[in-house]
Amino acid sequence: MIKQCVICGREFYSRTNAKFCPDCSPYKRKTTVELGGLMKCEMCGKEIVRTVATKRYCAACHEFIRRHHGQKK
User: What residues have CB less than 8 Å from 68, skipping those under 6 apart?
Assistant: First the structure.
């Protein structure tokens, strides 16, 4: 079955209900996160070192969010 890629609009053949052509496939377009690089806290904007790929907040903001969501440590 001929499909149209939702990202680039190119037509491609697929037997499944794929939405992306082979070039735009999300599996090939994953971006790698550089650990040890600088990033900004999403809450306060302070620059912090990324130690894990999922890190989003500095320690102070992380603690604030954790307290206000009812988690206790």
Answer: none
Among 26, 24, 22, 19, residue whose Cα is nearest residue 3? 19
Burial 5-22 (b: 16+ CB within 10 A, else e): beeeeeebeeeeeeebbe
Enter the pTM of the model.
0.50
Which pair of tokens denotes residue 67?
């307290």
For the chain, the maximum distance between any two Cα atoms, rounded to a whole number of angstroms, is 53
6-49 confidence digits (pLDDT tens): 888 899 998 888 888 888 876 665 556 678 888 999 999 999 99
